[in-house]
Amino acid sequence: MPVIDELELIRHVHESQFFPHFILISGYKEFEYARTALKYGVEDYLLKPVNETELNQILKKVCSEHNQMLSENTKIHIDMHKNNYYFMNVI
């Protein structure tokens, strides 16, 4: 990346309280690089060349976890709306 590297980007996003899913694909084999990436919430760290089967498994896992999180957030939102409705009727 011309302006910042991928770890700086991930760090900035992590610090801004957004929590997207990152899968880092890199040629760096150094442990410290991978450890730093995982510290910032990277879902997985793959070395080049990427094994297609492994990547597909990771993508399925991340999608499943993301869908579960969305479902839980929707349930929480519905429950909060119901509780707010009950509270407004009490007043």
Detail the topology: elements first, then pairings.
Blueprint: H1 6-15, E1 23-26, H2 31-39, E2 44-47, H3 52-90
Parallel strand pairs: 1-2
Task: Write a short abstract of this structure.
The chain is mainly α and 91 residues long. The chain contains three helices and two strands, in the order H-E-H-E-H.
Describe this structure in words.
With 91 residues, the protein is mainly alpha-helical. 64% of the residues lie in helices and 9% in strands. Helix 2 links the parallel strand 1 (23-26) and strand 2 (44-47). It starts with 5 loop residues before the first helix and ends with a helix.
Features:
3 helices; single chain; 91 residues; two-stranded parallel ribbon; mainly alpha
Q: What structural class do helix, strand and pairing data support? A: mainly alpha
User: What is the first-to-last residue Cα distance?
Assistant: 56 Å
The dominant shape is flat
State Rg: 19 Å
Give the spatial strand order of the biggest sheet.
1-2
Largest sheet: 2 strands, parallel
Series of H and E elements: HEHEH
